[in-house]
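[Solved] Which block belongs to which protein?

Original post:
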Amino acid sequence: MLSLKLGALGKATALAYALAIISGWPGAATAQEAPAQVVERTVKALPNRDTQIGVYLNVLPDCTSGPLPTIRLASPPSAGKVVVKTAKVKATNYKACLALEVPAYVAFYKSPPDYLGKDVLTIGKVGVLWKLNRVTGQYEDSAQTVFQNVFDKIDPKTGIPTYRKDVLDAKIGDWISSCPGPAGGHDWPATSYDPKTDLMVIPLHQSCVLMRAEPMEKKIGVGGDAGSQKLFEMPGTDGNLGKLAAYNTTTMKALWSFQQKAPFLTGVLTTDGGVGFVGDFDRRVRGFETATGRTLWQTRLPTSAQGHIVSYAVDGKQYIAIESGLGGGSPVGKPTTLLPGIHHPNNGNTLLVFALPDN
């Protein structure tokens, strides 16, 4: 008997089930006499799509087909279903057979249409992309999206970070470096997930700071930031504050990224057509190919593109709405200091709508 245990992922979540192959192997007179074998694997699957999880055949020494095993589902998945179909399999150089075509059983897994798995991804100001189990909260993986020196290390098993010793020991009046700085590696501009490519597209900011806590008299009426800071460019960026990166949520590796002087100030919008949109401090809005990051279209606005880009349709015609405006705290204030060569108009609050071409 061969018992096959598989984990299938409907977008980054493990589903456990087992296929038991209980008879039909050559040399086994009965199912009880069949040799026992256990195979474990993990499979990634898009929601509501058939994903092949196994092919089962029986090729004899003379390159003909022997009796096929009997397959039953011993333990069903927690979501979705497993289906076993009959098929003809063609192969070359299989078990010394130069070419063969034999019958086989092929197993497929299919998740529910709206099943997105049990993973949750989040990214904060340090610029570390975290992947957790959204049901249990257990750490699964992480990726450093920009240079950071806030943490000395991140435990690969627990995900618990360790701060630099000089950060922990800092006293009032001590200058401490921090990468990223107050604008964060990632701040309020939202990420966007594209299920077709399994990519998380993230707008990132690359600048650092030297900061010092200042003494403050402890009495009513005294307040303020009680700190000083000196901004500087992030190492290895050549002064590029803006970075747009796409991370595969399965591997947690960057598939593509590009840098530019101006930081991105809008959330990212990805669409079902494989096109994404994002806007920046230098008044530029671009449409890009989600799978590659290649720029497909761009234009300039009255002032910086900010807020959240939205898409909507009227009578079958699709539109993209984008805000341009002022304000925004550190994500706007820091590039104003670090990028004196970029003109940032102090007016131009506008809502602009662009129509997508019919084709």
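(Second protein starts here: sequence line, then its structure tokens.)
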Amino acid sequence: MTTTPSASQQINAIRKTSLNATARAERISALAERSSYVENVLCHALVASLSSEVWQRDARASLQVFNSEVDDSGFDLVLTLGPHARYIQLKQSHDEKTPTKCSVRLSFSAMPGACVVLMAHSVVDLRLSSFRFVGGAVSSDPMPLIDALSRSKAPGRRNAEGQRKIREHYRDVPIRMFRRALSAAELLDRLFPSSNVV
């Protein structure tokens, strides 16, 4: 039995083929060079998508958004919906390459409401296509235990022997631990499962 591709799969296939090899390579190179810019754009798109979903469900409900001014606690964003709060570490990847793991700070993973959201986007236009989520079952739970996972290696930093420095307080969370291919509506349900607007 043959399955018909979903509308989003068809759109992504059209976007993927709309760039020639040179333009695609330039975009992928720019993603690495301008990663902070890209992550900011995607963060705003994520907040807009989730806010739109909340509005559709209850126009009187309010998704509150707080940004982390200093990146030393492991989270990029705090979202609240009613009494429920999520501390979110954002990760991003383009549709043509999914990472095998994400580095997460141990102390962050133990915080109530901590979670990681991996935002998948188009190389062509940075449109969000899907989300992956790992976190507690309810917004007051910490992430699943990650202490026993492999220690992360620092990106780009190598010692005199050419080995990358081990980041003792970080763990590599394998992508298989994430709930995958979630829409904005499904992500909202994962973030705030006990909210009255969900």
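Accepted answer:
You had them paired correctly. Confirming on the second one: The helical segments are 7-17, 21-33, 35-57, 106-109, 184-191.
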